[in-house]
Structure formats: C-alpha cells, structure tokens
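Before a computer can learn anything about folding, someone has to put a protein's shape into writing. The outcome of that step, for a single protein, is printed below:
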Amino acid sequence: MNVIYEVELHVDADIAEAYRAWLPRHVAAMLAVPGFVSADLLEVVDPAPADGTLVLSVRYRLASLAALDDYLEQRAPRMREEGLALFGDRFRASRRILRAPADAGA
C-alpha cells in the first residue's frame, strides 16, 4: 500500500529564499528515513497564498502506514527541530495523511 504524507508549509515572504534553499536538504534527509520512497516539492498557486506568504507542499510517498507510524513516533520531533531552529515562527506547517481507498484497484 502506498501512503502519502503531505506537509503544507506557509512561509513568510521575507525568509522564502532562505527557506527554499534549506528545504531540499531537509527533503533529502526525510528520504533517508526507512520507508520513505519519494517526494514531490510543489508550490501552491490556487488557492492563492495570502500576501506576504509563500505556500509549499511536500508530498512524501511511503511504502506503508507502519513506516509512517514509525517516523511519527520515533523521528518526527528530531526531524522538525532544524527548521524550527533556523526559522522559528516565520513558517507554519500542517500535515495530513492520504492513501488510496482499499477498493481502488477493483
């Protein structure tokens, strides 16, 4: 089963360049976590972001829900620390978990 872990990032425009420079390194570190298979980094264009805000979406594909559970329980706080240390409250992240319906292959 493929699972999508989506992280939507709302970044203050005045740190957007630095955040964009840092984010690919963070995504690469996430892809080194067991069970993470691939990632797409996307800029949200609609709905249009609020003035002064860059909105990005990172969609990680995982091999299983168990791999995501392991990440969330064992690694997530440590993986989030660097971004918070570098950018503080100048960005916010929301997360959701997606998967294909059980009968999608039928």
